[in-house]
Amino acid sequence: MIKRILGKDLEVSAIGLGCMGLSQSYPPFPEKDEGIRFLRRAVEMGQTFFDTSEAYAAGENEELVGEALAPVRDQVKIAAKFGWDIRDGKILGLDSRPETIRKAVDASLNRLKTDHIDLYYQHRVDPKVPIEEVAGCISELISEGKVLHFGLSEASVNTVRKAHEVCPVTAVQSEYSMWYREPEGGMLSLCEELGIGFVPFSPLGKGFLTGTVKKDAVFAENDIRHTIPRFMEQENMDHNQALAQAVTEFAENHSLSAAQVALAWLLHQKPFIVPIPGTKTENRLQENMSAAYVDLSDEDYKELDRILDGHTVIGARYSEATESLTDRS
């Protein structure tokens, strides 16, 4: 598998694997044994970068990833996330106080069956705790060997810059795709300036850019898209189909899938970008990983940019409650 470098020295597969959907947000979920087999098969296929969080199914996702990867721990990099007030299996809000971070990392290490986390993100910026305190705590955990690299998720340019002054930030994780391009407004330039990697989640637009989500799609109540205006408001679904169709037609003309095109486009934007699409099937995993080998010409990418410029995307990407947790400072 082709590799990329996040930050100074974190080498990972050019396409990572977002593991959340194995336990929450995108039903149906596989049985535990099936999930373990899938993750181990991913390693056999060359996948080396696995993304999880304490918040995914209240730790169950970390347990799944930990059990699956324990026999091959030396072959993979695991990214996990902290920053939540979790009690009795329920997320009650944000909490990035140093004492909470220390409890969180020990709990995650236990669930992940490992003695270190390769990349540890603050999942959401906690406005009650100065980012300098958070970065200082992670710096201590790095000195102790429990964490190897520091990351931030859905953080602002200002927050990343301040954190980086205290503890070098290896990667920023945020949503970025053909249908959500906000990171181009400053975050990618900051990452380039400071030598920070960028890890797009939902790089396929939560499935929309694959061309398989039709305008009459119905989502289960435990499907994250059930709460998202881009999916639940019919006007948005009808309008945005034009972009998905255009990407699909481009892909077909180049003997590719829409997912391969969407991921190859992201990889083309910057050499420090590593998308983490989620999937539960070997076929889709192979399709996603093969995007690292897609060979499009400069003119092809210019055509894709023309397609994107010619198709507006409407509708909020999050519910108001979820959007309120993102950092805009």
Strand-residue fraction?
Answer: 5-15%
Strand elements, count: 11
First-last Cα distance: 37 Å
Strand order of the largest sheet: 3-4-5-8-9-10-11
Rg from Cα = 19 Å
Task: Label the structural class.
Answer: alpha/beta
Largest sheet: 7 strands, parallel
Estimate the mean pLDDT confidence. Answer: 96
Order of helices and strands: EEEHEHEEEHEHEHEHEHHHHHH
Number of helices: 12
Give a structural overview:
The chain is of the alpha/beta class. The protein has a 7-stranded parallel β-sheet with strand order 3-4-5-8-9-10-11. It has a two-stranded antiparallel sheet with strand order 1-2. Strands 6-7 form a two-stranded antiparallel ribbon. Helix 1 links the parallel strand 3 and strand 4. Helix 1 packs across helix 2, helix 4 crosses helix 5 and helix 8 crosses helix 9. The radius of gyration is 19 Å and the shape is globular. 46% of the residues are buried.
Topology, pairings included?
Elements: E1 3-6, E2 10-13, E3 17-18, H1 32-44, E4 49-51, H2 60-69, E5 77-82, E6 84-87, E7 90-94, H3 98-112, E8 119-122, H4 131-144, E9 150-153, H5 157-166, E10 169-175, H6 187-194, E11 197-201, H7 229-232, H8 234-253, H9 258-269, H10 282-289, H11 298-309, H12 320-323
Parallel strand pairs: 3-4, 4-5, 5-8, 8-9, 9-10, 10-11
Antiparallel strand pairs: 1-2, 6-7
Helix pairs in contact: 1-2, 2-3, 4-5, 8-9
